[in-house]
Amino acid sequence: MALYTTIHLHNVPAGREREYATWFDGPHRAAATTLRGFKAADRYEVTREQIMADIPQPWRFLSVYDFDLPNPSIDIPALGPLIAGARDAGIVADDETERLYTYRLYSDWKGSPNWRQSKPLSGVSIILANYVPGRKAEYHKWYDEVHSVEVTNVPGHVAMKRGELSPLQIEPRLYCPGDQLVMCAQQTDDLSFTIKDFSARAGGRSPSGIAMQPRSSSGSTARTVHYFKKVSGKELWNAGIAYAGDLSMYPGKSNENRA
């Protein structure tokens, strides 16, 4: 068995958002649960808050499918016809933006003390990333030992998982800008604060006094970053900012804001 995640980046024609949501959480979810190795499926919507304002956000919606597959060569393509049903019904916009990418994960979620595992996520961010050729081992060491720990300890950031682009892909097989997937989970009701403290820690300006190490040059600058809020499921996050530390050191925040 091997862990895989398929991300479906897409738009929905104006006025048909409710129809798409009903399809996803109804017949589509029921059909997806019959696939071998199926673990979970959730929908997300792009947020106004983004960490890199100059990066385009061409997709309003993200669907994430998680699998533990017995035979990827057989099981990865099986998701394709289920998603094609929405395309055929016209509830996926035919605007040349749709992308489907499947990644083989290096591991499941790697959580920090911030993570409230009994609670839903508020959202996820994805990086379609790359490493500098010839520096793969260095890139993974930096992420595994340094950066994943730094990122998931930011208030509201709670877990990370990473993977590499699978040689097995689902139609339509279009260009992917990132060979590496970095997915970070959030539990925060103040994403603007979470993103700002992420940037402040990276720049050594956080009121927490915590400064991230310099970004490894083994990570290519050819990457795109996208934040999304969770819009599927019966329960949504409403419990403040998940943080194992002291929020009172931040102006305007107190430990009452902390989950």
What would you say this structure looks like, in words?
Helices cover 22% and strands 25% of the residues. It has helices spanning 17-32, 72-75, 80-88, 136-152, 191-202, and strands at 2-10, 38-46, 61-69, 99-105, 110-111, 123-129, 157-165, 180-186, 224-230. The chain has an 8-stranded antiparallel barrel. The protein is an alpha+beta fold and 259 residues long. It is globular.
**What would CATH call the architecture?**
2-Layer Sandwich
The order of strands across the largest sheet is 1-3-2-9-6-8-7-4
How many strands? Answer: 9
Average pLDDT: 96
Largest pleated sheet: 8 strands, antiparallel, barrel
**Would you tell me which CATH topology applies?**
Alpha-Beta Plaits
As residue ranges, the low-confidence spans are none
Fraction in helix: 10-25%
Report the top-level CATH class.
Answer: Alpha Beta
Domain count: the total is 1
- The assigned structural class equals alpha+beta
Order of helices and strands: EHEEHHEEEHEEHE
Describe how the helices and strands are arranged.
Elements: E1 2-10, H1 17-32, E2 38-46, E3 61-69, H2 72-75, H3 80-88, E4 99-105, E5 110-111, E6 123-129, H4 136-152, E7 157-165, E8 180-186, H5 191-202, E9 224-230
Antiparallel strand pairs: 1-3, 1-4, 2-3, 2-9, 4-7, 5-7, 6-8, 6-9, 7-8
